Amino acid sequence: MPRENIPQSSIKKLEQFFSKTLDTNNDGLVNWTDFEAAIESIVSKDEAAKNARLKVLRKRLEQHFQKYFWDLCAVGDANKDGNIDLDEWLDVMNDIIGGLKDKNEFPEWYEGLHKALFRANEFLDERAVLKDEFANMLISWDIDESSSEKAYDFITEHGKKKMDYNLFSEFMKKFFLNEIPKHPLNLGLD
């Protein structure tokens, strides 16, 4: 299938995003095991067992991630094997990027993942996320601290804008649409 919405210059960035943020066990496939590992890295079962608030947070994460995973499979699992391989994911991203170009919005099912990821973090204030908090969130996605901080400075205009969910969503849109090599929006993945 041709991927007319993904510029050739963005393929490596998207492949790296797949490998670092989704394919947690590096087997070339995204499946429920990868999502379970992501949940465990955000709120471990041990932490959740000791703290009622973390238990609720973990349960919500499991619900959001499960919904996202099944939505992703419904949209992208072309061979219906319960896994999303890199080619299937790039086909999904081609459609998502096309939607961003046309309407500047993510599909509702995909936006839900970003909301869950953002809200799963321990921020002092969700309406004004600090640079180190943002960097810690992206480090959990296996993005290096320096690249995370550069992206934060760029999207917040060096702190002039407050990092909240809306700005984070805008950041993710720009990440997927950006075609300029070595730009801070690329998170060092190109």
CATH architecture: Orthogonal Bundle
Low-confidence stretches: none
- What is the N-to-C succession of helices and strands? HEHHHEHHHHH
Task: Specify the CATH homologous superfamily.
Answer: EF-hand
What characteristic shape results from the CA principal axes? Answer: globular
Helical residues, percent: 55-70%
| Tally of separate domains | 1
Structure annotation, total helices: 9
The pLDDT mean sits at 92
Strand content: under 5%
Taking the alpha carbons of the first and last residues, their distance comes to 23 Å
The value of Rg in angstroms is 16 Å
Description:
- The chain is mostly helical.
- It has a single domain, classed as Orthogonal Bundle (Recoverin, domain 1), CATH 1.10.238.10.
- It has 9 helices and 2 strands.
- The protein has helices at 11-22, 32-42, 45-50, 52-76, 86-103, 108-119, 131-139, 145-155, 165-177, and strands at 29-30, 84-85.
- Helix 1 (11-22) crosses helix 5 (86-103), helix 4 packs antiparallel against helix 6 (108-119) and helix 7 (131-139) crosses helix 8.
What secondary-structure arrangement, pairings included, does this model have?
Elements: H1 11-22, E1 29-30, H2 32-42, H3 45-50, H4 52-76, E2 84-85, H5 86-103, H6 108-119, H7 131-139, H8 145-155, H9 165-177
Antiparallel strand pairs: 1-2
Helix pairs in contact: 1-5, 2-4, 4-6, 6-9, 7-8
